[in-house]
Amino acid sequence: MSGHRIAVIPGDGIGKEVVPAGLEALHATASRFGISLQLDEFGFASADYWQRHGTMMPADWEETLRGYDAVFFGAVGWPEVVPDHVSLWGSLLQIRRTFDQYVNLRPCRLMPGVRSPLADREPGDIDFVVVRENTEGEYSSVGGRVFEGTERETVLQETVMTRTGVDRVLRFAYEQAARRPARHLMSATKSNGISISMPYWDERVAEMGGRFPDVRVDKLHIDALAAQFVLHPDRFDVVVASNLFGDILSDLGPACAGTLGIAPSANINPERDHPSLFEPVHGSAPDIAGQGIANPVGQIWCASMMLEHLGHPEAAAHLLGAIEDVLALGPAEAPLTPDLHGKGTTVELARAIADRVRERS
Ligand code: NAI
Ligand code: MG
């Protein structure tokens, strides 16, 4: 049986602690479902690599990673050694763009045993995914400065929306919605204020909707939508947004669902022309790195998303169920990490989840 080839990049800080934890849960799930995996670990995209080589990644990184089915990524960034814009642009952002990972997918689910910062919210109340356009939109480098340093100093930066770029992310979002029980898509817009690009976005949303008659679609201006995330998170199922709006919503969503430590994300190239990359939402957390107390759940949930992407939905659901079972036990019964009000370590929590993967029916 030919296995899936996975490139593993731990990166910096707690990335080096949560990636092994994620792999333990991944191995437990793969062996239970008879999935064969070939894993290769790489030390680049880290401050250590930068100190030795003066770059974040080797010149041939693209050829190296191209042959893999997926990249399992920890976190990159160690500001004491490399400025953050250098480490990020020198690694993760290059990978996302080169591999045309045009969907950034972030599930937001309030897990049992996790306290939401929103009052009186329970598991089941928050369960939606944010689909963010990841390659164009507001994050273009089209523009410039003229008359610098004078009274006429002028700065311009353009939003770029291409029909190809908009349609492909909308199609992905509609497909996600069509597969979920609620079959609802919410589009983030601002066509009242941004009077050229956002009406275009709305037009494409309506046009694409014609191909998905079973999906109910709504739109909300981004300001009202952000307020609704906090006031009525239960209204949402799939949310689709441009690069900037999606960036903001995909931090706000997981924040409403509790700790940063459990939030996963996927950078996806849906056509599979290039590998997709799975990474927790959090960074390298220098303040707790080396203490063995980082929450591994975000990374383990990434393993579940990766299994789903590789065509193993039952295995993915089984692993997510194991995470839920262990979190639901609460800090008294399970070795939850300090951010979940427990006294457990990264290794203990990962072991508990891997054990649960083997035990649960
Ligand atoms: P961060 O996400 O690393 O940490 C923010 C806060 O959350 C810290 O107090 C940290 O201890 C806590 N935290 C994060 N993950 C946790 C976990 N798994 N368990 C328990 N607590 C956790 O964000 P910060 O501090 O702004 O950035 C630190 C470094 O990480 C920077 O170099 C930054 O550029 C980088 N970064 C990298 C990302 C990536 O690789 N995609 C994403 C975000 C930041
Ligand atoms: Mg962000």
Automatic annotation (TrEMBL):
Identification of the protein by name: D-malate dehydrogenase (decarboxylating)
Family in the record: Belongs to the isocitrate and isopropylmalate dehydrogenases family.
Catalytic reaction equation(s): (R)-malate + NAD(+) = pyruvate + CO2 + NADH
Domain named Isopropylmalate dehydrogenase-like: residues: 5-353
Pfam family name, one: Iso_dh
EC number: 1.1.1.83
Keywords: Manganese, Metal-binding, NAD, Oxidoreductase
Species for this entry: Streptomyces populi
Higher taxonomy: Bacteria, Bacillati, Actinomycetota, Actinomycetes, Kitasatosporales
InterPro entries in the cross-refs: ICDH/IPMDH (IPR050501), IsoCit/isopropylmalate_DH_CS (IPR019818), IsoPropMal-DH-like_dom (IPR024084), TTC_DH (IPR011829)
Enzyme class: oxidoreductase
Cofactor: Mn(2+); Mg(2+)
Organism superkingdom: Bacteria
GO molecular function: D-malate dehydrogenase (decarboxylating) (NAD+) activity; magnesium ion binding; NAD binding
